[in-house]
Structure formats: C-alpha cells, structure tokens
C-alpha cells in the first residue's frame, strides 16, 4: 500500500476550493466558514487528522510505504525511485524519466480532460505546496498547528509530516 499524505493546511485549502465547485458537496461563502467546519470535523469525508491517526497504526507495516506530497514535489525522481523499489519494479533511466514526466502535476492537468473528462478541471487546480498561506489567518494557523500536535504530532506519521512541512519550508 502506498500512502500519500499532505500538509493538513494544504489539504484544507484544496478541499475548500474543491467543495465550492462540486455541487453535491456543501459550499462555503467564506474561507472562515469552511475553516470552522474543517476544524470541527464537519467535512463530507470526515476529519483529516482522524484519517492520519488511523493510518499511523500501519506506518511500521512492511507492506505500507508512506510518502508526502511535499517530498514528491521537492524531488520527483527520488520519489518515483523509492516507490518503484518498494513495489519491486525495476526501471530503466528512460522509464524513470517517463514516469516522472507523465506523473507531474502539470502533465496530469494538461491531460485531465482525456483522463477524467469534465471532472479533470475540478480535480487539478494548482498542485503546489504552501497555498494555505494565501488563506489562513495567523489565528487559524495557530489553531491548525495546535490540532495537529494534539492529534498526530507525536506519532511517527506526524513526525514525518512535520519534518516535510516545517523543517524544509
């Protein structure tokens, strides 16, 4: 199992934009309204911190590889090499470069109408890291940090995310 996790602040930011263009999901008039719903576990797919907490139980399982979105953005070649090794797949240099190129956000966004139809425009927005800084107030940032620490901060998965989010920022 490949477990891809992401900075909870960017998850919230992405889900906010996603919710506001997906008519079956509740939409939010303001970011502040969404933030309250996110932090009080009123999301359509549950609480991200609880999701991470559940997956933390499996981080030592040899059949589970955890990688962060941030790691893949920072060094996609190394990320693909590690994923291939985990699954026991040997790649030539040309195959490796092909996978890296075709799995880049830009490539997936460009091909999204072919791969996901009209839904592609909704799924592929920016694909960046730290977009949360455009929405979060200082108070919201502190609240999210506190919730992160309380829920998963001292876990193996929490430590991995913290390193990627705070130590490399």
**What is the top-level CATH class?**
Alpha Beta
Q: What share of residues are in beta strands?
A: under 5%
Estimate the mean pLDDT confidence: 89
Unreliable runs, pLDDT <50, ≥5 residues? Answer: none
Sheet with the most strands, sense and barrel status: 2 strands, parallel
Q: Within the CATH hierarchy, at the fold level, what is the topology? A: Rossmann fold
Assembly type of the chains comes to single chain
> How much is the radius of gyration in Å?
17 Å
Number of helices: 11
Report what the structure shows.
By secondary structure, the chain is mainly alpha-helical. It has one domain (2-168): 3-Layer(aba) Sandwich (Rossmann fold). The chain has helices at residues 8-21, 31-39, 48-56, 69-74, 76-86, 93-102, 105-110, 112-116, 120-123, 138-153, 156-167; strands spanning 2-5, 65-68. The chain has a two-stranded parallel ribbon with strand order 1-2.
Blueprint of the fold:
Elements: E1 2-5, H1 8-21, H2 31-39, H3 48-56, E2 65-68, H4 69-74, H5 76-86, H6 93-102, H7 105-110, H8 112-116, H9 120-123, H10 138-153, H11 156-167
Parallel strand pairs: 1-2
Helix pairs in contact: 3-10, 5-6, 10-11
């Amino acid at each position: 199992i490949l477990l891809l996790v992401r900075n909870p602040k960017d998850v919230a930011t992405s889900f906010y934009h996603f919710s506001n263009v997906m008519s079956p999901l509740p939409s939010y008039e303001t970011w502040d309204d969404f933030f309250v719903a996110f932090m009080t576990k009123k999301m359509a797919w549950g609480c991200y911190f609880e999701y991470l907490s559940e997956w933390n139980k499996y981080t030592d399982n040899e059949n589970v590889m955890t990688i962060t979105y941030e790691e893949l953005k920072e060094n996609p070649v190394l990320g693909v090499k590690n994923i291939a090794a985990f699954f026991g797949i040997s790649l030539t240099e040309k195959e490796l470069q092909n996978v890296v190129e075709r799995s880049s956000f830009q490539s997936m966004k460009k091909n999204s109408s072919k791969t996901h139809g009209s839904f592609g425009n909704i799924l592929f927005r920016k694909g960046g890291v730290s977009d949360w800084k455009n929405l979060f107030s200082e108070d919201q940032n502190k609240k999210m940090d506190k919730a992160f620490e309380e829920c998963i901060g001292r876990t193996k998965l929490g430590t991995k995310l913290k390193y990627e989010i705070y130590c490399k920022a």
